[in-house]
Write a structure and sequence with these properties.
The protein is an alpha+beta fold and 422 residues long. It is built from 14 helices and 15 strands. β1 and β2 form a beta hairpin. Bound molecules: adenosine-5'-diphosphate and magnesium ion.
Length: 422
C-alpha cells in the first residue's frame, strides 16, 4: 500500500489497531492489533454497535464514503475536524501552499492533540509553544473567516496561523473555538492541545467574534448553562472570559487523564446530518445497548424535555456523547454540552425542525409526545419533570438580565419560549 495510507490507532498508551483508507474508492479498513485483543483488556472501547467487530481479521468499510465520515469508520471520523476546524485546516494548508491533504494525514496532524483519548501515529510534528494570546488568535480568526473584509490583510502566513491551527482544529462543531489550559497554581494560560496534567484546568472556549453584532451568542449559552443544574442536568463548570467568550471545562480531560469519549454518531455510524436515525428514541436505545445506569436514562429524558421547552433544536447526534470508564470497562452518558437557544433570535425563522425527532415528530412537540417517550423507556414522573423544567422559564429571563443580554434579544427569546409552552 502507498505511503500514508495506513495509520496506527492508540489508546491509553497501547496500539489498538491500524486504519487504512483508499481515498480513490472511499474504502477503508481497520484491523485490531491481535495482541490488544488477546490481552482482553478494555473489551468495550468500541462497543459492537454494528460497525467494528472484535476480531483479529481485517474489516472493510465502503459505507462511510460521505461528508460526515470521509470514508473511515465513525469511531475515528469523530477525531476529524468538523465544519469550523475544516475552514482553519484549509486556510493553514493554503498558507503553506499545499492544497490536498488526505484524511489519514489529517489524523496524523490530530496525532495526540485530539479530543477524547484516541491518538494517531506516526504523527505530523508541529512546533510546541508555551504562550497564547486570545485577542491575537481572534484577530487572525477574523481574517480567516473573512470578517474583517480588508483584502490587504487576507494573505496569512503559516506562522500567523499555527496557533489557531493547533488549538482550533481538534474540537468538532461549527462555531469558532479553541482549547486552552489554565494553571491551577498561577492562573497562567497555555495552549490546550498537549498538556493534560492535573496541574491545569482544561477548557474549550467558544469565541465571540462579534460577527452577529447585536446577538451575544456565547453569553446566551452561558445563561442556558446556569439553568441546567437547576433542571437536574449534569454539565461541566463554565464561565465567561472578558464577559463574552464561553469557556467550559473539558470532560475529556479529568484528573490529569485523557478520557475516551465518542459522540452518539461516532459510536453507531448514525449520520448526525441525516434524519434517518436522528431521534431521541434511538439515543435512549443506545443508552440501553451500552447498559448505562437507568438514572442516566432519566437524565437524558430531562435533557430532551429541556431542549424542547428551551428551544435547543440543534441537539443532533454529535451534540450527545458518552464517556468510557476503563476500570469498569463500561460507558456513561457524558455531561451535557452545546445547549443553548439554537437560532439567532433576531431573525424571524418561519418553521424550524428539530434535529432529533420525538415520537416521530420534528416540530410542534406536545406533552403527549414527551409522555410517550417516558412510557417507552420507563421514566418515572414525566409530568413532574416537565412541570419543573417549565417553571425555569422566568429564571432564564432573570439570568439574561443579570448578564446584560440586549433587551431585544432577551425579549425575543422569552417571547418565543413562552408562546410555545406545552
Ligand atoms: N465540555 C466539553 N468537554 C469535552 N468536549 C466537549 C465539551 N463541550 C463540547 N465538546 C466537544 O466539542 C464539540 C464542539 O462543541 P460544541 O459546544 O458542540 O460546539 P458547536 O456550537 O460549534 O457545535 C462537541 O461536539 C463535543 O464533541
Ligand atoms: Mg455542537
Amino acid at each position: 500500500m502507498a505511503k500514508n495510507n495506513i495509520i496506527d490507532v492508540n489508546l491509553f498508551g497501547q496500539e489498538i489497531g491500524r486504519l487504512s483508507l483508499d481515498e480513490q474508492s472511499g474504502r477503508s479498513s481497520f484491523q485490531y492489533n491481535p495482541a490488544f485483543l488477546e490481552s482482553n483488556k478494555w473489551m468495550n472501547v468500541f462497543p459492537e454497535t454494528g460497525v467494528l467487530k472484535r476480531t483479529p481479521h481485517v474489516q472493510l468499510f465502503s459505507q462511510f464514503d460521505n461528508t460526515t465520515f470521509k470514508g473511515i469508520p465513525p469511531q475515528f471520523a469523530d477525531s476529524l475536524p468538523d465544519k469550523f476546524g475544516s475552514i482553519i485546516f484549509q486556510a493553514w494548508l493554503e498558507s503553506k501552499e499545499e492544497t490536498e491533504i488526505t484524511v489519514l494525514e489529517q489524523l496524523a496532524y490530530v496525532a495526540n492533540r485530539g479530543m477524547g483519548a484516541l491518538e494517531y501515529s506516526p504523527a505530523k510534528v508541529l512546533p510546541r509553544n508555551t504562550t497564547i494570546d486570545i485577542e491575537k488568535i481572534i484577530a487572525v480568526l477574523k481574517d480567516v473567516l473573512d470578517l474583517k473584509k480588508t483584502t490587504a490583510e487576507k494573505e496569512l502566513s503559516a506562522a500567523a496561523l499555527i496557533n489557531i491551527f493547533k488549538l482550533g482544529t481538534s474540537a468538532g462543531g461549527a462555531r469558532p473555538k479553541i482549547v486552552i489550559s489554565e494553571s491551577k497554581e498561577d492562573g497562567s494560560i497555555i495552549p490546550g492541545d498537549l498538556e493534560y496534567s492535573d496541574s491545569y484546568k482544561h477548557y474549550l472556549v467558544k469565541l465571540a467574534l462579534d460577527d452577529e453584532a447585536s446577538y451575544p451568542r456565547e453569553v446566551v449559552e452561558f445563561c442556558y448553562y446556569q439553568l441546567l443544574s437547576q433542571a437536574g442536568i449534569t454539565t461541566m463548570p463554565c464561565h465567561l472570559i472578558a464577559n463574552k467568550h464561553f469557556a467550559i471545562e473539558r470532560f475529556d480531560r479529568q484528573e490529569g487523564k485523557k478520557q475516551h469519549v465518542l459522540t452518539a454518531t461516532g459510536l453507531t455510524g448514525w449520520d448526525f446530518t441525516a434524519t434517518t436515525d436522528s431521534s431521541y428514541e434511538n439515543l435512549f436505545r443506545l443508552c440501553n445497548f451500552l447498559k448505562v445506569p437507568h438514572a442516566q436514562l432519566e437524565e437524558l429524558y430531562r435533557r430532551m424535555v429541556f431542549n424542547v421547552i428551551f428551544h435547543n433544536t440543534d441537539d443532533h447526534l454529535k451534540n450527545h456523547s458518552f464517556i468510557y470508564d476503563p476500570i469498569k470497562d463500561a460507558w456513561n452518558l457524558a455531561p451535557a454540552y452545546d445547549v443553548t437557544f439554537a437560532l439567532n433570535p433576531l431573525i424571524a425563522f418561519k418553521k424550524t425542525k428539530r434535529a432529533l425527532a420525538i415520537n416521530g415528530k420534528r416540530g410542534a412537540i406536545s406533552e403527549k409526545d414527551l409522555l410517550k417517550v417516558a412510557e417507552a423507556f420507563t421514566i418515572k414522573n414525566p409530568k413532574g419533570i416537565i412541570k419543573k423544567i417549565t417553571a425555569l422559564l422566568p429564571v432564564l429571563e432573570n439570568l439574561m438580565k443579570q448578564q446584560q443580554v440586549p433587551r431585544a434579544v432577551a425579549e425575543s427569546i422569552m417571547d418565543r419560549l413562552i408562546k410555545a409552552t406545552l
